[in-house]
Structure formats: C-alpha cells, structure tokens
Write a structure and sequence with these properties.
Length: 65
C-alpha cells in the first residue's frame, strides 16, 4: 500500500476519533449529534491538513517522505 493511501487512512481515522470524542459529550438529540460529528470531523481534517502543509512548506517532512 502506498504511503499516500496510508496517510489518508490515518487522517480519516484521527478525524473520526476526534469528531466522535467532541460530539459524544454533548447532551442533545441524535440528529444534532450527527451534525456536530460531521462538523468536528471536517474541522479536524482541515487542521491536520494545514499542519502537514506547514510542515511540508518548511521542509520538516523530508525524512519521512
């Protein structure tokens, strides 16, 4: 499996775990929890992509690629 596919799976896994973690503590109806999960999932993925883009821009990922 290529490193890109592994990286995408890790990104999705971390986003799913953080979305579940942040949305489960809210005391609301199920549809609202689902919407919060989706919101937190995409926010987490966006933050991760920004961090990896900054690391790549400053050549801090050269040993891993």
């Amino acid at each position: 499996m290529s490193p890109t596919v592994i990286g995408i799976f890790i990104l999705i896994f971390i986003g799913s775990v953080s979305g579940w973690f942040f949305s489960r503590s809210k005391q609301m109806e199920t549809p609202v929890k689902v919407m919060l999960f989706v919101l937190y999932f995409w926010a987490s993925v966006f933050v991760q992509l920004m961090v990896f883009a900054a690391l790549y821009h400053f050549d801090l990922l050269t040993g891993f690629l």
